[in-house]
């Protein structure tokens, strides 16, 4: 599938895709404020806003009939970059465990690479698994709690979030193998 087949210029103006793009554009400011202890409140608000765009973009696209290939590609990338960047910053500044950050990055790089392989070999865009969406929600809550109250608030939520995280790891792996084994293009 060629890049020109994925990006239709009009899709850049879909409200749902604009929300996804805004999430990407808000990332530098969010990360900047996350590293400053005197700006933690601002970081908390920005992180909440960026993740709210994630909650809104998919339903908006479906309601308006504007589900696009561009959105199907940009949305998961934006989610993963935001959550993984937040995890790195929280590990550096708020006691988020580095092992959890490593697992998140490992999982997300694997999902993105598998998605690229499927796109290249099967000309198919894989969509988020239900456990993946639940993991994004759970990790958002974890990030907000770590940002607001450090490990005391965030650690219990992290351990609960490991349940959908583990399920998504298995679900994405199983789906990748099934797609690659199928004879379909």
Automatic annotation (TrEMBL):
Q: Membrane topology per the record?
A: Multi-pass membrane protein
Q: Major place of localization?
A: membrane
Record's subcellular location = Membrane
A single GO cellular-component term from the record reads: membrane
Q: Which domain of life is it from?
A: Bacteria
Protein's UniProt keywords contain Lipid metabolism: yes
**Pfam families documented for this protein:** CDP-OH_P_transf
The answer to keyword Transferase applying to this record is yes
Recorded hits in InterPro entries, A to Z, give: CDP-alcohol_PTase-I, CDP-OH_P_trans, CDP-OH_PTrfase_TM_dom, CDP_ALCOHOL_P_TRANSF_CS, Phosphatidylglycerol_P_synth
The residues that cross the membrane are 12-31, 98-119, 131-150, 156-177
- Gene Ontology biological process: glycerophospholipid biosynthetic process
Which family, according to UniProt? Belongs to the CDP-alcohol phosphatidyltransferase class-I family.
- Output this protein's name: CDP-alcohol phosphatidyltransferase
């Amino acid at each position: 599938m060629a890049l020109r087949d994925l990006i239709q210029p009009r899709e850049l103006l879909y409200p749902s895709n604009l929300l996804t793009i805004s999430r990407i554009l808000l990332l530098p400011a969010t990360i900047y404020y996350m590293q400053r202890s005197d700006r933690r409140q601002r970081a908390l608000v920005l992180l909440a806003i960026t993740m709210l765009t994630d909650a809104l973009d998919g339903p908006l696209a479906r309601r308006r009939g504007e589900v696009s290939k561009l959105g199907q590609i940009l949305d998961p990338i934006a989610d993963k970059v935001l959550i993984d960047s937040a995890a790195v910053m929280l590990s550096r500044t708020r006691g988020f465990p580095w092992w959890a950050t490593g697992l998140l990055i490992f999982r997300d790089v694997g999902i993105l690479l598998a998605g690229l392989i499927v796109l290249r070999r099967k000309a198919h865009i894989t969509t988020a698994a239900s456990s993946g969406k639940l993991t994004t929600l759970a990790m958002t809550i974890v990030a907000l709690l770590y940002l607001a109250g450090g490990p005391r608030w965030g650690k219990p939520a992290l351990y609960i979030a490991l349940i959908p995280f583990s399920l998504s790891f298995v679900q994405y792996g199983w789906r990748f193998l099934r797609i690659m084994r199928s004879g379909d293009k």
